[in-house]
Automatic annotation (TrEMBL):
Protein name (database record): Carbon monoxide dehydrogenase subunit G
Lineage: Bacteria, Bacillati, Chloroflexota, Caldilineae, Caldilineales
Keyword Transmembrane helix (UniProt): yes
Ranges annotated as biased composition (Low complexity): 166-199
Organism of provenance: Caldilineaceae bacterium SB0664_bin_27
Coiled coil: none
Database matches in PANTHER family: BLL0334 PROTEIN
Keywords: Membrane, Transmembrane, Transmembrane helix
Source organism, top-level taxon: Bacteria
Transmembrane stretches, start-end: 230-248
InterPro entries: CO_DH_gsu, START-like_dom_sf
Gene3D superfamilies the record matches: 3.30.530.20
Region called Disordered, residue ranges: 155-199
């Protein structure tokens, strides 16, 4: 069994965080390894996610159901998925507190069976914590990008800050300044353009998981007083990352 619990702070109004937590597009981008996520009914989604835990890797097809929904404060979530690596079934709760900054409280557990359940518990727990951390960081980046002003708003603010020399001269001579507006295509394109936040690639997610797992293992060994073994682990991990980047290229 995997258990997760913690908090994450967002420098955003509660309404913005709540809206993001119900958006299938946002959810598909913050779930590491998510290939697709479609809304199939009210408060129900189906999707596919590719995940690796130690030597076990594969895709899960599953369903996510939301209930006990209390806008904009939180909801309960049930997940169920199966694939070649095995079967996953879990339940969790999300609760929002405050209103800019807003704190997300999460708590949940999942049952694993099949090949994925044969991986050591410590490795499973470290991987789950890493994926959760990366997903919440992606969510924070997306919400921050959504709160940025659209390009059209910035341009309008700059244009209205001070009249140009041509406008001032026309006013002084009594001539009416020529009306000038953006071309329809330019206006619609500017209005549609919204700031976005890049989501990590599959390689970046994998490297970050490896880093977090190595860090957890190093802490455990250091706690037992074997510092030399910690240095060996960190050196080996650094060499592994270097070889990975040389073979596959640095992730964009």
């Amino acid at each position: 069994m995997v258990k997760l619990a913690g908090t994450h702070n967002f420098d955003a109004p509660k309404s913005e965080v709540w809206e993001a937590l119900l958006d299938p597009d946002v959810l598909s981008r913050i779930l590491p390894g998510c290939k697709k996520l479609d809304k199939t009914a009210d408060n129900e989604f189906s999707g596919e996610i590719s995940i690796r835990v130690g030597p076990v890797q594969g895709s899960f097809n599953g369903k996510v159901t939301l209930d006990d929904i209390d806008p904009p404060n939180g909801y309960r979530m049930e997940i169920a998925g199966q694939g070649r690596p095995g079967y996953v079934k879990g339940v969790g709760t999300l609760r929002l507190e405050g209103d800019g900054p807003t704190t997300l409280h999460y708590d949940g557990d999942a049952q694993l069976s099949g090949r994925i359940a044969s991986v050591g518990q410590r490795l499973v727990d470290s991987t789950a914590r890493s994926l959760t951390r990366q997903g919440l960081q992606s969510l924070e980046n997306i919400i921050a990008a959504r709160l940025q002003p659209a390009p059209a708003e910035v341009e309008a603010g700059d244009a209205g800050a001070a009249p140009s020399n041509g406008t001032q001269a026309a006013t002084e001579t009594g001539a009416a300044p020529a009306a000038r507006g953006p071309a329809p295509q330019e206006s619609s394109a500017a209005a549609a353009a919204q700031p976005d936040a890049a989501t990590p690639s599959t390689m970046e997610v994998g490297i970050n998981v490896a880093k977090d797992v190595a860090a957890d293992l190093a802490k455990e060994i250091q706690k037992n007083g074997n510092t030399r073994k910690v240095l060996y682990i960190l050196a080996g991990f650094a060499a592994l990352v270097w070889m990975w980047r040389q073979l596959f290229g640095k992730a964009k």
